[in-house]
Amino acid sequence: MINQIDHLGIAVKDLETAVAYYENGLGLRCEHREEVPSQMVRTAFFDVGGVHLELLEPTSPESPIAKFLEKNGEGIHHIAFATDQVEDQLAHAAANGIRLIHEQPFLGAGNKMVAFLHPKSTHGVLTEFCAPAAPTTQD
Ligand code: CO
Question: How far apart are CA 49 and CA 69, in angstroms?
Fold first, then answer.
């Protein structure tokens, strides 16, 4: 089940100048920064009444965000829906003929398990499902 919009992903060329815009231009406060090696991005998060903005700057030309910027320039990159179980949501989408980018969730920013649907199957909107990662017993 989808519970709410978790965040909007926004591709930016330079995280620092983009953060400065959201902080100074809009008066929002950056609550969290994180590098996500699996996606080759640096991220910065803003809480806007429970829905977050996730700014994404590529750390490598191989990053999906670098490719997006090349093709489209800066702008909205994806919408992320908070769900209880990413696996269940993927299975439901696949059963309905929707193309998946990831068959299995992987660890994304904010200690969340994430996976994406292909924009060719989603009317042009790159779509992410996310859910809190299960706490590990080691720590
Ligand atoms: Co995201």
Answer: 28
Ligand 1 centre to CA of 97 (Å) is 23
pTM for this model (two decimals): 0.91
Cβ < 5 A residues, ion ligand 1: 9, 54, 80, 128
- For 2-132, CATH number out of 3.40.50.300, 3.30.379.10, 3.10.180.10, 3.90.1280.10 equals 3.10.180.10
* Ligand 1: centre distance to CA 115 (Å): 9
Please write the tens of the pLDDT for every residue from 73-126: 999 999 999 999 999 999 999 999 999 999 999 998 888 999 999 999 999 999
Q: Which two tokens stand for residue 7?
A: 């965040």
- Calculate how far, in angstroms, residue 9's C-alpha sits from the geometric centre of ligand 1: 5
Q: Which of 99, 103, 97 is nearest to 115 (CA)?
A: 103
